[in-house]
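User: Before I run my own analysis I want an independent prediction to cross-check against. Here's the chain; please return only the structure tokens and, at the end, one sentence I can use as a sanity check.
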Amino acid sequence: MNDRGFDLIDVHHHYEAGYGVGEFLDVSDGRPDTRTTTETDLRTRLSIMDADGVGAAVVIAGHTYLRPNGIADTRDVNDAVARYVALAPDRLIAGIGVVEPLYGRVGIAEVRRCRHELGLAGISFHNRFQGAPVDSPLMTPILDAMGEEGLVPFVHAYGTPLENLTQVDSLAGRFPDVPMVVLDVFHDVNQIRALPEVARRRPNLSFDLSLLVNFETLGLPAVRAIGADRFLFGTDQYSWPLMSTPYGCLAAGIVASDLSDPEKAMILSGNARRLLGTAVR
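Assistant: Structure tokens:
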């Protein structure tokens, strides 16, 4: 419980320390060494959470990792996420791994390893980094395995040709019994307009509120149209050195809104606990 009177769980943190975010993205700014270390990342992340009143976070594997060795590199990423959340289990309450759609059925074994060996709560898809559309047939064997294992798909919908709400709509229709968390949909105003219709058609979808510039202007109408039980607090926080301060003022906007306290509590933490269930520490 923070000073706003609500528990806050941020469902959209990315972790890329230890596997080369600086090699994929140019973030050096002339500094001699900006390769992220686990120690620097954890210290910075917890300080950001404290500054924003966030009690706990769900940590998602980053997608900007090099993969010259294919699935072996992906396994290393998932191992790193599992080790990372174990460093602060009271604050980093669930880990989300990654499996590449382009691996096809080879990825199924990694889905099961994420569940049984690593104890991760879900698998993330950021298809604009993965080379196959969200609704590609290549997603089917991975989602089949995830449904069997009770892992939650975290599906990015940034509004690009490989990941958008229309494709998520199609994917969710093929897997109506698999609850999914949709990330980044508020990046694109056209997706926001389509959100109520898609949400009514696909009750298995929930949406994080990351990338909102203003909750009252864009987020609150969607919550009123669809229902507070379908939305989650998330900020799209990345590893240092990409970010070193809280991302926006989303939590303050939710708390200041005219939603009821039970609705605010659902968005800020209740829906995350319900969707992730026993996977949340």
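Sanity check: Confidence is low (pLDDT under 50) at residues 30-35.
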